[in-house]
Amino acid sequence: MIGHDVLDAGLGDADDDDFDQSEDFDAQLPDGRYLDRELSWLAFNQRVLELAEDPALPLLERANFLAIFASNLDEFFMVRVAGLKRRIITGLAVPTNVGRAPADVLADISGDAHALQLRHADAWTSLVQPGLADSGIEIVGHDALDEEERDRLYDYFQAQVFPVLMPLAVDPAHPFPYISGLSLNLAIRIRNARTGRQEFARLKVPPMLPRFVEVSRAGDKVRYLPLEELIAHHLEDLFPGMEILDHHTFRLTRNEDVVIEEDETENLIQALEAELLRRRFGPPIRLEVTDDMDDLTLDLLIDELDITEQEVYRLPGLLDLRALFDLGKLDRPELRFPPHVPTTAVAFQPAEQNGRADLFAAIRKADVLVHHPYESFATSVQAFLEQAARDPHVLAIKQTLYRTSGDSPIVQALIDAAEAGKQVLALVEVKARFDEAANIVWARKLEKAGVHVVYGLVGLKTHCKLALVIREEDGKLRSYCHIGTGNYNPKTSRIYEDFGLFTTDEQVGRDLTRLFNELSGYAIEKKFKRLLVAPLHLRKGLLRLIDKERRNALAGKPAAVRIKVNSMVDEQIIDALYRASQAGVKVEVWVRGICSLKPGVEGLSENITVRSILGRYLEHSRIFSFENDGDPQIYIGSADMMHRNLDRRVEALVRVVAPTHLKELTALFDFAMSDSTSSWHLGPDGVWTRHNLGEDGKHLADLQDRTMSSVQRRRRARAVR
């Protein structure tokens, strides 16, 4: 039996039992004990790039990793680099955990980013593009076309491209045009045949047209021409009577971070919409140009865009390799990972073939832990909400929505429930970065259907993944709860690895009821039983649990800490792990992205191991496991170990208690941290080293493949019974 003293640790009244940090711990810890978070993020994107470079992976998957790298780096510049630059310009303090000057941080970022972008370009031109060509998928230049192909593509240009092009001249009567962020452009120098004067023009490559124009197709063989090449070879049609002197491709990245002072606005939605309009005109922070651009054109762009030499990236080959996502539409299964169809969780499988499962009955029987995308989101989370919407005994549904997809069945289920007369509360986080506009649309659609829509607490993003269904059974109300590690998004659920817990536990039901009341009203809840909730209690609760392991180790009791997160940055959590390591606690950290913790430092962190796993699925779940003197405690939830998650977001972790679930989570961690499993190992110098081959030269086991097989075995075992 689990004692309430453990469940309530760090979760009680904020002022009655605070975690004692009076001991001068910092005196025991050395300076320079953190890795730079921005450089650590670039190291994460390097791991993505290493997958693209891996000849053992299918070619279209490698192309997809190149596109992911490009998309990731765009967001890094638009948000992280832009935020640093904005703070420097405005004189605000720049947060850094390594004690270096902001300008030095930006210089280091620039150096690493330049090297990575060149490596990225080379991976495409030297590795993936030739490999695709050998497999019958060619990206060719205009010079490789024969006369018939050129004629046919010219007809396409005239009919589909030319009408939407907008050449913009730059002269005394035409000021330098606005260059939108992430747009692909041609910088063109021309000579006026009448006056002999040289002029400059900018031409935007239309983003609504396919980036790769099909040249020919014969069976599995297909050839494409980049759209910018097609346009560049017909510039005479756009500038008749002019001599085309030169043309080059360039691309601009702008600051697209959104900053809203919520306590100074009366209408969050209106303020956010205004800020989204401003985002389009954010200051430039990166200029990508082809490496053959002449100095005259480059100097003009630098001057007009008010950008520094450090922010210019000269790159060979194609710019904006996000376009490689388009190759995913090709029907070449042999060039992809073997297909995996998510199974229905054993507990949610219908009793009769072709029957419909009763999810409420299954959850009443026992807690259900679902592992996406190995187990289906559609037949678990989505089916749960759809059953709640049509069930006449369901009285109310409350849910958080951080990110969801277009035409979302989750949103439709909430609408159906409201239209059926149920009480429905949707907490829509309209400030979810880059999903702000979509979430405003969802919020208004839900409101029109009669759903009670709220936007959470001022100054905090609501990031927790919670759903609460209230059902009347035999004259009493029962709470059906779902707490997840990932968004209620059917699309990303197919590629994001996440866990979700379904339970009718009364403590969890009361916790969620209180938390939703806090989010939708004015209640300030101080007590939770099976939840750890940020911003008030989560960090403090984790620090207590980590410190208990430290004290257990000092007392000679079994002690260990295991944490799986996307990012490990928070200094208080890291320092607590250092202290635990110094006391002899075995600490294992499984991190996908940023890690500021230095493992393996003598006297500080020699008992800490850090691993990273990347693959076909994006590792997204968060798990926190504590040995607790032989009575393991494991939490899952939405929170990463970052300042924003612990201080500026509403996050929730739930305690997992079913022995089978504890065993499943422990086994997953055992396999992830095993030396026989393919992963990246972090060294004390911040360098990640890939370990994917054994001493015999054979590939190490793949965690995600093994998990797929394990889930399939459970399903087959159920079918046999």
From TrEMBL:
Top-level enzyme category: transferase
Gene Ontology molecular function, alphabetical: kinase activity
Reaction catalysis annotation: [phosphate](n) + ATP = [phosphate](n+1) + ADP
Record's protein name: Polyphosphate kinase
Function: Catalyzes the reversible transfer of the terminal phosphate of ATP to form a long-chain polyphosphate (polyP).
One Pfam family of this chain: PP_kinase
Amino-acid positions noted as binding ATP in the UniProt annotation, renumbered to this chain: 72, 496, 592, 620
Cell inner membrane as UniProt keyword: no
Organism: Microbacterium aoyamense
Enzyme Commission (EC) number: 2.7.4.1
Modification note: An intermediate of this reaction is the autophosphorylated ppk in which a phosphate is covalently linked to a histidine residue through a N-P bond.
Cofactor(s) listed in the protein's UniProt record: Mg(2+)
Record's compositionally biased regions (Acidic residues): 13-22
Keywords of the record: ATP-binding, Kinase, Magnesium, Metal-binding, Nucleotide-binding, Phosphoprotein, Transferase
Keyword Cytoplasm: no
